[in-house]
Every structure is written in C-alpha cells, then in structure tokens.
Amino acid sequence: MARPMAGFDLDAYVARSRAVDLATFAWDDVPRHPTPPEAVRTLRYMQDVESHTIIYLRSLLATRAIDDPEVATFLACWLYEETFHGIALRRFLEAAGHPVGTRERPRGQEPLSQRIEAAATAMLSRAWPDFCAVHMTWGAINELTTLTGYRRLATVAGHPLLNDLLERIMLDESRHFFFYYRQAEIRLRRRSVARVARLLVDRFWAPVGSGVQPDHELEFISRYLFADEDGVAAARKVDETIRRLPGFATVQLLEAWMNRHVGGRNGHGHP
C-alpha cells in the first residue's frame, strides 16, 4: 500500500455481493468450544454496531453521498452485507449459549447528541461540495479498524468456529475498506479538500461504535483486543495505513485514542 491502490471494480463487486455465506457453517459445533466471557462481551458490541448500520445510512441519505452514482451503488450493497454480519454474529452468540437480548434503547430512538450530529453532517454536506471526500476517508478509517478488530478477536478468543465465521465476515470488510480507501485517495488529491477533511477527522473522529455503545464498553474492548504487543502493533498499522492518504501523513488515530482513553491501565504503559 505504499503506492496508490489499483482501481476498484465496482461492477464485479456488485455482481458478487451477497449475504455472508453460512451454508456450510458448523453451528452445532459452536458450543463444543468455550467462548471466553471477554469474547462474548466483544461480540455483543460488534453485533450491535453491525446491526446499527441502517441508522448510519439514514444519516447518509441526507448528504451529497447519494448523489454520486458509484457511492450510492456501493452503499446499497454495503448496507445489505453489513446487516447480515449483524445477523451472523447474533446467531453465533445464540449457538454459544449467549443470546442477544432486547436492546435497552430502540434503534429509532437516537439520543439528542446523535440527532444533532446527523443534522450537522447534513448541513456540512449542503455547504461543502466535496463532502464525499471526508465521508470516504471516515469510511476507510472505520472499515480498517473494524477489520483489524475482527482479526484481533479471532486471534485472542481462541475459538475455531468463531475464527471461521470472522474469516467469512472479513472478506466483506476488506472489500468495503478497499472501496472507501481508493475513493479517499482520489478525492483527497486536491490540497484544499484534504485540508478540510483532515481538520474534520482530527476534530471529530472516534472509534467505531462511539455514541452507539457506552464508552466503558469501547474501552474494555480496546484493552481486550489491543493491550498486548501484537495488539499495539495492529493499532499502529491502522494509523500507518491511513497516513498514506493525501494530507494525512501526520494524523493520530487509533493508537493515540487508546493512549488517551485506556493507556496505562494494564500497568504496562500501553492501552
């Protein structure tokens, strides 16, 4: 990734877009392997965030993103695939004996802070013709952190069937990341656009799920997935990848967020 990525073949992506393939998944074998309580807690968080995708899309529909034919086409497939990620994770938790209960706050009842954020995003989109650049950059960051989180969970949970499921989900997430990143590369080539996008990311970005789940859950998951040496290296790699985007060479993201919010709590000076 040191050089610009090759083009994203949107037609090929649309042609093979489908729900995550679970036809051959060994559901009956899931309870034969212990699922650590930390992994269950992490899966509940991830399942809720994946299932929240339709709410994110509702906000995007009020922006310029849907005016771009390629972006609009991608978002239709993205929503479909992400929704089934949530369904797959829910089914795994049920098979493991940890069913997902009723959500405390119905998805349609967003807190005031999220409604204000959605309104501000729509206003920014109307005022700034290049809004899609920051949306693509934001999407690239979030898809890469999600993909990295799944990889870390597969490693630390030690559950072979969970690893199998996450591998299937990660195939989708990697394609999502590729689209967002390639779009961001193209749209950030204008220095003025990159400057505004960088300002917004610096000011407002937070890890996936912020505002959807309580902060203490996000901090717990950050410690669980990224506390050891390999986890710190994985977080650093996320930041290094995003720094290759035009205008983002010095951006501070996942590693810096963890150092601010959960750093030093394990007694080793790392998140």
Report on the architecture of this protein:
This protein is mostly helical. The protein is built from eleven helices and no strands. The chain is globular, with a radius of gyration of 18 Å. The two termini are 26 Å apart.
User: In percent terms, what proportion of residues is strand?
Assistant: under 5%
Radius of gyration: 18 Å
Largest sheet: none
Mean pLDDT: 88
* Total beta strands: 0
The helix/strand series, from N terminus to C terminus, equals HHHHHHHHHHH
Query: Which class of secondary structure composition applies to the elements?
Result: mainly alpha
Helix content: 55-70%
Described by the principal axes of the CA atoms, the overall outline is globular
Report how far apart the termini are. 26 Å
Question: Residue ranges: pLDDT <50 for 5 or more in a row?
Answer: 264-271
Give the helix tally. 11
Fold topology:
Blueprint: H1 10-16, H2 37-51, H3 53-60, H4 69-95, H5 112-127, H6 131-157, H7 160-187, H8 191-204, H9 215-226, H10 229-242, H11 254-261
Helix pairs in contact: 2-4, 2-9, 4-7, 6-7, 6-8, 6-10
